[in-house]
Design a protein that fits this description.
The protein is α+β, with helices and mostly antiparallel strands and about 425 residues long. It has 11 helices and 17 strands. Helix 2 packs antiparallel against helix 3. The protein is elongated, with a radius of gyration of 36 Å. One of its GO terms (biological process) is protein folding.
């Protein structure tokens, strides 16, 4: 393994000026912008190595530590062998009842690994560290219809194309210049006048001992299926598609999704569990006399819902129309059930100064005017479908609907009237 002086092509007795001169010459030669595209990969790695060598050898303290220790260290101090002066851990230095294992356990350090010169357990991550995680935002329509998400990413695995190296064919890989291929660097600690050395995972190569360009790593693609009716927050996990390390369970690929209201879209529905809430405007004439509207509300899947309120049924402020099975799909339900759609009623009253003759319904309609229904939920930029879906519905007063719906309709928290949201296990199972 080349020394830092060999990397720069100078003698160990070289002056600072000679080191600077050698660095400038090599930097001009290997700078990525000064070479052809075919040589750029190798030059990037070489340039990084000579720069790291120059930074150490041009610093008086770092060079002295390097010359004394013979290897790059992150801090000055002593090597493990310096402790031999105390007669060993089992000898007179610490007493016969204090051995190396006791000392290692005391400091949380594996000294046997230091003596061996290997990187020991530094390349053995915890199982959770092998997982690869992604986070995305989804819309209400994504959760209603379900969505397939494709992610292409880089991972450590045993790849046939690269023979398990994790690199593309002809990719350049050299010993990490920071740890000189060991995967670990030495840090020093002092306690009570005593100094000791500790090996930690190299941050530059992540304990691998090798360095390569990130673009050279192999890639794979995963498809994450978000189910119809999924909750506003959730995860999709694909086993064995995370990182792969010897003697450890394979990591997982995990997609975390979160519902976020898109400020660019006018989302007309509010979700509460498996139910959907929305609002419409109804004229006073329709509220008093009943109506039939074939395009009352357009659903998320672009169907128009047909609602017929019989003559004589009076709609009052705070009432709502509940349509069964027109809410969010319920994942895993026995009969592909869906939640309910709650439609809040807003009454449009006539202007001040109107007059009416008692008992003259037609005159009343002329005075009030038959206001065309303009429900908020009809504001959909999709192409109108002339067909409508007949519905079975109920009209409930505000005391018979969930408090959360009354809160939604009134735009303020309601605690004094309405029911809880719990439908019980039986109703929840069948989507009631």
């Amino acid at each position: 393994m080349a020394s830092l002086y060999e990397v720069l092509g100078v003698e160990s007795s070289a002056t600072e000026g000679e080191i600077r001169k050698a660095y400038r010459k090599l930097a001009l030669k290997f700078h990525p912008d000064k070479v052809s595209p075919e040589e750029r990969e190798t030059s990037e790695i070489k340039f990084k190595e000579i720069t790291e060598a120059y930074e150490i050898l041009c610093d008086e303290d770092k060079r002295r530590d390097y010359d004394l220790g013979g290897s790059r260290r992150e801090a000055p101090g002593y090597s493990f062998n310096d402790f031999e002066e105390f007669g060993g851990f089992g000898g007179g230095g610490f007493g016969g009842d204090f051995d190396a294992d006791d000392f290692a356990n005391f400091f949380g350090t594996n000294f046997n690994a230091r003596r061996s010169g290997g990187n020991s357990s530094f390349n053995h991550p915890n199982v959770g560290e092998l997982d690869i995680k992604f986070e995305i935002n989804v819309t209400l329509k994504d959760l209603y219809f379900g969505k397939l998400i494709k992610k292409t990413y880089k991972r450590d695995t045993i790849c046939i194309k690269c023979n398990g190296k994790g690199l593309r064919k002809n990719a350049v890989e050299i010993d990490c210049p920071a740890c000189r291929g060991l995967g670990v660097v030495e840090e020093y600690r002092r306690m009570g006048g005593m100094a000791f050395v500790e090996r930690v995972k190299c941050r530059q190569c992540d304990g691998k001992g090798k360095y390569s360009r990130p673009d050279d790593k192999c890639q794979c693609t995963c498809e994450f299926q978000i189910q119809r009716g999924s909750p506003n927050e959730g995860e999709v996990t694909i086993n064995d598609m995370g990182h792969i390390k010897p003697n450890l369970p394979k990591g997982r690929a995990i997609l975390k999704f979160t519902y976020t209201k898109d400020p660019k879209e006018n989302e007309l529905f509010h979700r509460e569990g498996n139910d959907l809430y929305t609002k419409i405007s109804v004229s006073l004439v329709d509220a008093l006399c009943g109506f039939e509207n074939e395009k009352l509300v357009q659903t998320l899947d672009h169907r128009w819902l047909n609602v017929k309120v019989p003559m004589g049924k009076v709609l009052k402020p705070g009432d709502c129309i509940v349509i069964k099975g027109e809410g969010m799909p319920i994942p895993g339900s026995m009969f592909n059930s869906s939640g309910d759609l709650f439609i809040g009623i807003e009454i449009i009253f006539p202007k001040d100064g109107w007059m009416v003759e008692r008992g003259d319904r037609n005159r009343l309609m002329d005075i009030l005017g038959h206001v065309e229904n303009k429900p908020d939920a009809n504001d959909n930029d999709q192409t109108d479908d002339e067909k409508s879906t007949p519905t079975v519905f109920q009209i409930k007063e505000k005391d018979a609907v969930p408090k959360s719906f009354n809160t939604y309709v009134n735009n303020t928290e309601v605690k004094t009237f309405g029911t809880g949201n719990d439908k019980g296990w039986f109703g929840g199972w069948f989507g009631w």
